[in-house]
Amino acid sequence: MGREFLEIFEQWADSYDDTVVGHDLEYKEVFSHYEQILDAVAARSIGHVVEFGVGTGNLTQKLLAVGLRVTGIEPSPSMRKIAEQKLAGNAVILDGDFLHFPEVKKIDTFVSSYAFHHLTDNEKAEAVAHYGKLLSKDGRIVFADTMYESEEDHYNAIVKAKNEGFHNLAKDLETEYYTTIPFLKSILEKNSFSATFTRINDFVWLMEGVKQ
User: Fold this and answer.
1) 24/10 Cα distance (integer angstroms)
2) Which terminus of the chain has fewer CB atoms gathered within 10 Å of its CB, N or C?
3) pLDDT digit string (tens) for 43-68?
């Protein structure tokens, strides 16, 4: 359910914001156009937003800036502490994850950035099915994450990272649960969502599902 990676984020909390602005060469391309990615998620969100994996609150700030109400879900205590300081009480941040979170009423949009890959494919399918039951017509799922057009593309990305000497990145791509666009499209459509995918950089795509 993604919590097996919790210790990584406990350790990463203090340096996360430095990583996303390109200070870590291995992850520079992963976070390329980072602000544009967050802006794109915010622009496609409506109403009351539930954000999974708040982290240090960067996407949350974008959502608040366009006038949306945000309930954040974050399993890492260290990340929550930083986000709460940064957001100064303008959003509610709760303990939870993609599959287990406190009851939240009248949700219009589920969002996430750089986090859905912490779930296995079976868990991703379970999550999307659950969100489909909580959203009304025109409700949305807007996730930005690393994903691939095929399993071959995923394999090639691992090989490329190793060839470039980016061994931490290669390990992440091998051990975390990155998936394919055809799989994500299938689980969205199975749960009565339209599905669109927009590429932002060499790693990250924007996935948008709208409840039909």
Assistant:
1) 18
2) C
3) 999 999 999 999 999 999 999 999 99
